[in-house]
Amino acid sequence: MPANAPQVLLLEDDPAIARTICYALEREGIAVTHSLLIADARRQWGSRPFDVLLMDVGLPDGNGLDWCRELRSAGSIAPVLVLSARGEEMDKVLGLELGADDYLTKPFSPRELLARTRALLRRLRQFQPAAQAQPAAALQIDEQGQRALVHAKTLDLTRREYQLLQCLMQGAGRILSREHLLEQIWGLDSESTDRTVDTHIKTLRAKLREHLPDREIIATHRGLGYSLSLPV
């Protein structure tokens, strides 16, 4: 699977349905991470960024729509496609009102699922440039020069602070766990701990605050991790 393949998290407790979905998406170049339970899906979602969430509703450890509502309340903008055996109009309306972007009734064809997933990925790609175009002048990453700029002025960052900011900006609007940040920046073999991430976040915040005093762009989510909102 290519490194830049779209990332989909699938929450489905029926192994047979999950295998069909995984096969249909992966043969088209879409990477799928499968969770049987909401608890594992929460852990996966917090560990790294995903582009789309495909979720069943009736699960052994809860209702998928409750989690969907929590994600929206936390500010997540990732597209959500609900997969449910309940196809009544009121069920669909409820799912959409609680934050789902689309609703697919079981049984469904793999071709239709693929088409709907692609549509959500296209919508996501269309949304992201518009969201980033305005703040680009305020906060930018110069990857070639390995530096960060605020209003075209270079930030005095350490290598780790730069990598941390770059990682947060790549996942802007999403909550990134300490474990994910540790793995991406310090590596799996590092002896660094969650405290290392907290310390670097603190110093990075202080430096950003010097240039953006009216906006706290890095938010702490207790027990979950950190998120970054791009300044306008």
UniProtKB/TrEMBL annotation:
The modification 4-aspartylphosphate is found at D56. Residues 128-230 form the OmpR/PhoB-type domain. Keywords: DNA-binding, Phosphoprotein. The keyword DNA-binding applies. InterPro entries: CheY-like_superfamily (IPR011006), OmpR/PhoB-type_DNA-bd (IPR001867), Sig_transdc_resp-reg_C-effctor (IPR016032), Sig_transdc_resp-reg_receiver (IPR001789), WalR-like (IPR039420), WH-like_DNA-bd_sf (IPR036388). Residues 128-230 bind DNA. PROSITE patterns: OMPR_PHOB, RESPONSE_REGULATORY. Coiled coil: none annotated. It comes from the Bacteria. Residues 7-121 form the Response regulatory domain. This is Winged helix-turn-helix domain-containing protein.
